[in-house]
Design a protein that fits this description.
With 206 residues, this protein is an alpha+beta fold. It has 6 helices and 7 strands; from the N terminus they run E-H-H-H-E-E-E-H-E-H-E-H-E.
Length: 206
């Protein structure tokens, strides 16, 4: 019996200025499933403004997955934005990435119509490859502890929760800002994943 052929992943590319309104649409659509968990405030939360998205894009920290099946000219179905946090950890971690700087994933969202295809994992692997060129030794993110497609998902692909004592000043500022926005109505946490030396792909990422 022939082996099943994996579904082709979409094209991953840097976001363009023309993509930014579509990223807002993706974020709104990706927020809708939170309603079923009683988190309507998250579903109703406004996406990044065009100006905020442009800040990440112009700094080289915004990528999209364009089209399913792969089509570089298609409308994006997912995106990731992030930036390098240059403040290292105060104390080295007992893991390979030590206390080096981290690339912080500010947002990764997949349109529900493209969910469960490995696109989020592919974007994270792509960001890790870019982050390595900047000297980052790890990825970080903040997420909801009890939402199935948040912390439990990230744990499955190699992220681990950070204890409060492990947070850098930059991560503390990020968490404080999230609290100001009211995101802490439900438990949130920071997570971290080491970046290996070699390049990652969606098939080889943790």
């Amino acid at each position: 019996m022939p082996m099943p052929v994996p579904a082709p992943l979409p094209i991953l590319r840097p976001a363009t200025a023309a993509d930014l309104p579509a990223l807002q649409d993706i974020e709104r659509a990706a927020g809708e499933p939170f309603r079923a968990l009683g988190m309507a405030a998250i579903a109703d939360d406004e996406p990044f403004t065009i100006e905020e998205l442009e800040r990440y894009r112009s700094a080289g920290g915004a990528w999209v997955a364009a089209g399913v099946p792969a089509d570089a000219d298609a409308t994006p179905v997912a995106y990731l934005v992030g930036e390098l946090l240059t403040e290292p950890l105060t104390e080295p971690l007992a893991e390979p990435d030590g206390a080096g700087p981290a690339f912080h994933i500010e947002q990764v969202s997949v349109h529900p119509r493209a969910a469960r295809l490995g696109i989020g994992r592919a974007l994270i692997a792509h960001a890790a490859d870019h982050a390595r060129t900047l000297g980052a030794t790890a990825l970080t993110l903040t997420t909801y502890a009890d939402v199935p497609w948040n912390a439990p998902y990230y744990a499955r692909i190699g992220f681990r929760p950070l204890a409060d004592a492990e947070l850098t000043p930059a991560l503390r500022r990020i968490r404080a800002h999230e609290a100001e926005l009211g995101l802490d109505r439900w438990p949130r946490l920071c997570m971290r994943r080491a970046i290996p030396d070699g390049p990652l792909t969606a098939r080889t990422a943790p």
